Amino acid sequence: EERELVKGSKEAKRQRKKTKKEYKTRTVHSNLLYYRTKAEDNPNRHYADNKIKTTKYTLLSFLPKNLFEQFHRFANVYFVFIALLNFVPVCNAFQPELALAPVVFILSVTAIKDLWEDYRRHRSDKEINHMDCLVYSRPERQYLERFWKEVRVGDFIRLRCNEILPADVLLLSSSDPDRLVHIETATLDGETNLKQRQVVRSFLDLDCEFDPSKYRSVIECEKPNNDLARFRGYITHSSGRRDGLYKDNLLLRGCTIRNTEECVGIVIYAGHETKAMLNNNGPRYKRSKLERQMNVDVGWCVIILLVMCLFSAIGHGLWMYQYGEKRPVFDVLSPEGTHMSPVLSAIYLFLTMIIVFQVLIPISLFVSIEIVKICQVYFIHQDLELYDEETDSHLQCRALNITEDLGQMQYIFSDKTGTLTENKMVFRRCTVAGVEYSHDANARRLAMYQDVVDSEEEDCPSHGGTLPRRDSVTSHQSAAKVVLRSQSTKSHRRTGSRAEAKRASILSKHTAFSSPMEKDITPDPQLLDKVNDGGSQMDFKRFHSQSLSQMPSELTDIIDFFIALTICNTVVVSSPNQPRHKVRMRFELKSPVKTIEDFIKRFTPSRLTSSSNNSSSSSLNRSSNRGCSHLLTSPSAESTLTKLDEEPSSPVPAPPTLGTCYDGKPGSQEEVELRYEAESPDEAALVYAARAYKCSLVGRLPDQVTVEFPHLGRLSFELLHTLGFDSNRKRMSVVVRHPLTDQITVYTKGADSVIMDLITPPPTDDSKGKRHRRILYKTQNYLNRYAADGLRTLCIAKKVMSKEEYAVWLRRHLEAETAIQGREDLLFESALRLETNLHLLGATGIEDRLQDGVPETIASLRKAGLQIWVLTGDKQETAINIAYACKLLDPEEEIITLNADSQDATAVLLEESLHYIQVKFLCSSSDPSRAFQNDYASVYSFSPPASSSSSQPFLVHRLGLVIDGRTLAYALDSSLEEKFLAVARSCRSVLCCRSTPLQKSMVVKLVRNKLKVMTLAIGDGANDVSMIQVADVGVGISGQEGMQAVMASDFAMPRFRNLQKLLLVHGHWCYSRLANMILYFFYKNAMFVALIFWYQFHCGFSGSAMIDQWYLIFFNLMFSAFPQLITGTLDKDVSSETLQELPQLYMNGQNSEEYKPYMFWVNMIDAFYQSLVCFFIPYFAYVDSDVDLFTWGTPITTLALLTILTHLGIETKTWTWLNWLSISFSVCLFFTVALCYNASCPSCFSPSSPYWTMQTLLGEPLFYLLCVLTPVAALMPRSVGCARKCALKLLPSDVWLGPESPSANCEAFQFPTTITALHHHQLMLSFTHTTLIYKRHIIVI
C-alpha cells in the first residue's frame, strides 16, 4: 500500500510536468491514492470543491463592489459628480452636505435591496452546503457522513434511495441486480418520469461489493459544460483496458435516487462545475423598447440642461462685462482674493448652474421605474385567471424589467406541439399491411370524454360515473409513497427554485401521459379479431414445431406491427400502487459475453438444441448494448436502454426448438394494471394502444423486453441494441432476437418522410412485389388522409438480418463506440448502415388535441393587430389541419404553398409568389413594398365582403403561407431572405413545417432585425429554446416536455390561452402606466427647474435661487414622489373586460401611441408654460412689496407642487382611495415639513432666513388666492386640450362608414353591445380609444 501511495505521488508530479493537451479534457484520479501525500501532489487539486456560493458580496467587499456595480449606471455617476462638484467653493450652489442627501439616499436604498437579496442567497447556500452525504474514508475504511461542501472531485460517495445527489457522480456500483439506478430529474428539466442510469461497463460483472480502496482506474472526460444531454469520456484501468463513458453513466447533481437501495460513484464534477449549477442562470435582464426610447429623451434633457447653463453663463458674462472696471458690490472674488474676469466668472457660473439645474435629469426616475415594475410583476403573479389548477402552476415573470414590452408586441412565433396542443397523444387509427382500421368506437369514446369534460367545467359538483378531467391517480396510495414524495419536495426546495419544486411535487403525483383519454383505448373489432387469429395460429405452429413462414403474410405483419409498438420505445413499467417503483420479475439469464466471437457463437446452430434453451432467453452482449445505447441522444430520449426486473412466474416449458417463455395464463397480468412511464407522449400512446389489443409490455431489462400476447402468453425478446430517436434521423430502432424465430430483427418507427425512403423497393416481376407496391401506395394514401385530419403520423417497419450481416455491422459499430474523436459521427453512420432496406408494416395516426381556448386566443390576438407565425416540426398536412382548427388559417383564405428541392427552385417560387400578389392584390400599386408597410391591423378590424374586388389593397392580408423545412432552409439564405420576407409579410398567416430548432431561431432573428419589429416567441420544449432566446420576449409553456423552455424564457405560463390576458391586459396596462409615468417625470422636473431659470433674468444670472435649498433637494425625493408611484402601479386607462372584448385597443401600444417622440417636446413646452405662470403670477402679486426672497419663493414652491399634483390628477384615468391618500399625504407632508423647518431655523442662512415664512404666508389671504388661481391658469391649456380631444372623439366622424358609401370598401364597424353595460367614465375611455384606432385605419384604406 505504501508503495502504491509513493507511486501515485510520483505519477502526480509527472502529470504536473505535462504540457496542456490540445483538446479540452479532465482527468480524474481517486483521492484515496493521495490521502497521505501533500495537497499539491493531488492531481485533482485544481478542480472546484463542492461548496456552493451564489452570493455576490462579503462583509469586506460589499460596499466597494456594490458601489462599483451601481456606478455602471451612468445616471448615478452623473449625480455623484454633481454632488462632488458642489464641494468646490467657486461653483457650489447648495450646502455640500445637503447636496449629497439625494444621491446617498438613492444609493442606500439600492444597496439595502441588494444586501437583502444577497443575504437570502447566503441562507440558501448555507442550508445546501450543510446537507449530509456518505463519503468513503481511507483511514476508517468505511463511509462516513460529511457535509456537501466537504466533497471533492475524486471522492467516492454512497447514495441511498430518495437521497439527492450532491455532485455529478460517475456510477460504479448499484445494489440493483441489473446494475441500474433510477433517478428523477424534475429539478433539472421538470420531467417527473423516471430515467435509468447504468453502471460503467467494466464494473457490471462484479461478484462482490464494490471496494473503493481497490480502485486504480483513471477517468478522462470532457471539461465542465451545461449540456444536460451529453457526457463523453473513457475510463482506463490498470490493466490497460479502456471503456467508453456516456451520459447514462452519469448521475447529475440535484437528481433524486429512486428504486435503488444504494449505489456508489466517484465525483466527476463538483460545486459550480456541475451541470445543474452551470445551467442556473437566474432571472434574465433585458432593456425594454420603452427604456431605450427614454434614454434618448434623457439625452435631450442633458442637451437642454447644457443649453440652459450655457445661456446663463453667457448672460452672466455679459452682465459682468457691462460694469467694466467698476466692480459691483455683490461681485464674488476668486479664491486668491482678486476680481475674476467676466470670462472666468462665466465658466465658474456654468458649473454652478449645472448644480442648480441638476434636477432636470430625473435621478428618482430610475428608482421609481424599478419600484413600479416590481409592483407590476407582483400584480401579474396575483392574477387568478393566469393560474392553472390542473398543474398547480401560475404565470412566472423571470425577466423583471421588460413588462412594458408585453404591450408593444407585433409578431408572435409559436410552436405547435405542446404549445397550441395539449401534448396528450391519443391513438386514433392505424393501417397495417395496406388495410386501414378506423377505430370508430374509439372516436366515439373520445367524443363522449370531451362531452364529460365540458359538463364538468359547467357543473362544479362531480357526477358519478364521469371520467375525471385530471390525470387518474390510483386511490390506494401507500404510506411509503407519501413519505417519499414529501422528502422529494423538501429536496427540490433545497436544490432548485421553490416554484419549480412545488410544480415537481404536484406533477410527481401523476404518471406522465396516463390520463384516461390517453390510455383507455377502444380497439377496432376487425383488427382485434386478426390479432387473436394471428396469435392463435402462431401458438398452434409453435406447439407443432412448424415454421412461422407458412402463416399468411397479413397476420405476420399484424403481429410484428404490435411487437414494434410494444418494444420499440424506452417505456418504464411501474406498479399501480407505487408508480415510482418498478415491477421485479426476471427470467433466468446466461452470463454475458464480452467479445464478438463469443457473441457469434451464441447464434450458431448448436444454440437450437434443447440443452441450450432451458432458459427463457439468452443474455445481451453488454458491451455492444451499452455502447450503442448512447448512439444519439436528445431531450426526448433520455435513456435508450431501459431495464425492468421481473419476478419469476410459473413458466410452462416451451418446445425445445423455440426459445420462448410461455405463461399459460395470458391474462394473469391484467389483475393488476401496470403503469407506463414514458419519456414522450407518442411512446405512451402507442404502448397503450398495443395493450388495448392485449399486446402488453409487462417487463423491461437492459437485455430483454417481456411482452404478453394473446394465446402466446409472455414472450421475452433479447434486446441487443437500442438506437435512440434524434432530430436528425427522425426515427428509433431496436435490435432484438425474436423468441419465436430466433432471428435477429430490427424494428424501426419514425417519421413517414424518412421511413418511406428506407423501404426496400419491391420487385416488379412477381405477385409478391405487386402486393408490396399496393401496400406502399395504400399506406401513403392513408398517411395523407391522417395528416389532412390533423393526426401525427408514424411509420412502423422491420428488417431481418442474417447472423453474418449482423456480425459485420457489430464489428464496425464497436469500433465506432471505442473511438474518442468523432464518436458521434461514426455512430451516426453506423445507425444509417443498419436502418436500410426495411419492410413496411404499417402506420399510425395519433391525435394531439388543441388546448382549451386556443382558437379564441388566436382570434383575439389577430384582432389586436398581432402577426402570428407557427413554426413546427410536424409534417405539412398535419400542421395545415391544426392551423385550420386553431383558426390560424381561414377557409376563405388563399394558401401559398412553397415546396422546393433546390435553391433555384425556391427563388423561382418566391418570384412567382411576389408576382401573383402584385397582380391580384396590388395591380394599381407601382410600389408593392410600400403597400406591405401598411398597418396590418386593418384586416383584423374589418371583414371584407365575400365578393371583394382585387383592387382592394388590404386584401393582401387574406393570404396564408405554408413552407416546408427544406424550402425554408433555402429561403433563409442571404440571397433569398429579402424575397421570402416580402412574401411572408404580405400574408395574414405563416406556417413553417418540418422546421428545425435552428431554423426557428433564424426566422425570428430575420423578422426582428429586418423589419425592426417587436417579436415574441412561445414554446414548451427544448427544441424551442433557441427561438425563445432570440426573440425580444420569450415565453415558455410549463407543459409536459420539461422545463427547458421555461428556464430559457422571460415569462412562463401554464397554458397558451393565458397569453391573451398577459398581452392584451397586463401588457397594455404596463406599457400605458410606464409611458405616462416617464413623460410625467420629464414634465415635473422641467417645470420645477424652469422656475429657477426664469429667476436668473432677475438676479444677473448669478446662479442664486429664490427657493430654499431644502425644498430644491427634497422636492422630487419626498414631496412629489408617492402619487406618481401609485398612479404608475395602479392606473388603468381601460378595464380588463373592455381590453379583452376590444382587442383592437392593443394597437395603442404597438404604435407607441402613449409615448411618441413629439410627446416629450409637448410636455417640455407645457412644463415651461406652467413654470412661467407659477413664476410670474406670484411675481406680479408681490411686486413692489417689502417681502423677502424666501417669502416670495416659498409660494412659488407651493404653487408648483399643487400644479404638479393637479396635473397628475388630470392624467390619472382610474381613481382609487390610494390616489387620494397619496396626493393628500404629499400636500400634508410639504406643509408639515415647511412649518417645522421654518419654525426651527431662525439663523440658518444669514442674512436671508426662512424663519416663520410659511406661518406668515398661511395668515395672508393673498396666499390662498394664489393657490387657487395659479394652478387653474397653469393647467388651463392642458384641461381645454383634453376636453376638446374627448369631445372630438365622441362626435360622429368618417369612422361611421357604411356599405353604401362610395368611399367605403369595408363593412360598417359596430361596437359590441356589451360596452353599454360599462360605467359612464369607462364607456367614454374605451369608446374614445376604439374610435381613434378605427378612424386611423379607415383613413389608411
TrEMBL record:
Regions of compositional bias (Polar residues) in chain numbering: 631-642
Q: Where is the composition biased (Basic and acidic residues)?
A: 1-12
The record's Gene Ontology biological-process terms are: phospholipid translocation
List the record's Gene Ontology CC terms alphabetically.
endoplasmic reticulum membrane; phospholipid-translocating ATPase complex; plasma membrane
One Pfam family per UniProt: Cation_ATPase
Q: Which residues cross the membrane?
A: 74-92, 98-116, 298-323, 343-367, 1078-1097, 1109-1130, 1160-1183, 1189-1210, 1217-1240, 1252-1275
* Region listing for Disordered, in residue ranges: 1-24, 456-526, 607-666
Q: EC number(s) per UniProt?
A: 7.6.2.1
Binding sites annotated in the UniProt record for Mg(2+): 415, 417, 1020, 1024
Catalytic reactions on record: ATP + H2O + phospholipidSide 1 = ADP + phosphate + phospholipidSide 2; a beta-D-glucosyl-(1<->1')-N-acylsphing-4-enine(out) + ATP + H2O = a beta-D-glucosyl-(1<->1')-N-acylsphing-4-enine(in) + ADP + phosphate + H(+)
Q: Which residues form the P-type ATPase C-terminal domain?
A: 1046-1280
Q: Which residues bind ATP?
A: 415-417, 683, 725, 749, 792, 872-874, 994, 1000, 1023-1024
Q: Which CDD domains match?
A: P-type_ATPase_APLT_Dnf-like
Composition-biased stretches, type Basic residues, lie in 13-24
InterPro entries (UniProt xref): ATPase_P-typ_cyto_dom_N, ATPase_P-typ_P_site, ATPase_P-typ_TM_dom_sf, ATPase_P-typ_transduc_dom_A_sf, HAD-like_sf, HAD_sf, P-type_ATPase_IV, P-type_ATPase_N
Q: Which UniProt keywords apply?
A: ATP-binding, Endoplasmic reticulum, Magnesium, Membrane, Metal-binding, Nucleotide-binding, Translocase, Transmembrane, Transmembrane helix
Sequence ranges assigned to domain P-type ATPase N-terminal in this UniProt record: 39-97
| Primary enzyme class | translocase
Q: Which cofactor does it need?
A: Mg(2+)
Task: Give the bilayer topology.
Answer: Multi-pass membrane protein
- What residue spans carry the Low complexity bias annotation? 607-626
Q: Entry's Gene3D superfamilies?
A: Calcium-transporting ATPase, cytoplasmic domain N, Calcium-transporting ATPase, cytoplasmic transduction domain A, HAD superfamily/HAD-like
PANTHER family reported for this sequence: PHOSPHOLIPID-TRANSPORTING ATPASE VA, PROBABLE PHOSPHOLIPID-TRANSPORTING ATPASE
Protein family (similarity comment) = Belongs to the cation transport ATPase (P-type) (TC 3.A.3) family. Type IV subfamily.
Name-wise, this protein is Phospholipid-transporting ATPase
